[in-house]
Amino acid sequence: MLDDTLKSQLQTYLGMLRSPIRLVATLDDSETGVEMRSLLETIVSLSDKVSLDTFGSDARKPSFVVAREGETQGVRFAGLPLGHEFTSLVLALLWTGGHPPKVEQDVLDAIKALDGDFNFEVYMSLSCHNCPDVVQALSLMAIFNPKVKTVVIEGSAFQQEVTEREIMAVPMVFLNGKVFGSGRMSVEEIVAKLDTGAADREAAKLSAKEAFDVLIVGGGPAG
Quick check: is 69 in a domain? Predict the structure, then answer.
């Protein structure tokens, strides 16, 4: 499943975990299910901070959740996150295990402030160049806000869903069962579409600043 070079790199990254994580898998006897079990067992063998539970009961098989120890919610991968999405898997492991993401603090604050029930499903393919940005953005949101749930779906493993939902290109994102967007999207763009309280917070920031004695508008000479 993973060659020795990739295993060595993965072991190095897993060494950055600050807290234990748990992989909860719902498997089947399909070829993808067998490969998923092998992948998860390999990950567990590379770090004592990662454990595996293969008694999940999710409707999508095969799939697995990356969760904090003692929790059941996290980013769910349905199908194998390999190819271009292997980095997305590694980042989900790291972020869930407490390694800080490389995003601005105000972006994290905006993610944490989102209020509502957000159930995302993002369809991707392993050869898609635009998919990782969207997958990683939605993974980050699910890890840092318990009101956000994200399922990453590898289209070829769930072809019936792709056909029924008439998905012609990836990434394709559904929110609460309805089309949310397609193509490349940044985490900032996704949050902006959801965050109806952003304007109020910006106004509050301005109000919190000390009053200006003089406010000069424009840079030209005074007449």
Answer: yes
Q: Is 208 helix (H, G, I), strand (E, B) or coil?
A: helix
Q: Report the chain's C-alpha Rg in angstroms.
A: 20
The pTM of the full predicted model, rounded to 2 decimals, is 0.87
Give domain status of residue 220, yes or no: no
CATH number for the domain including 45?
3.40.30.80
Residue 223 is which amino acid? G
Rounded to whole angstroms, the Cα distance separating 36 from 93 reads 15
Digit-coded pLDDT (tens) for 145-176: 999 999 999 999 999 999 999 999 999 999 99
Q: In this structure, what token pair is assigned to residue 83?
A: 């190819």
Q: Are 149 and 138 in contact (CB under 8 A)?
A: no
Is residue 193 within 8 A of residue 138, CB to CB? The reply is no
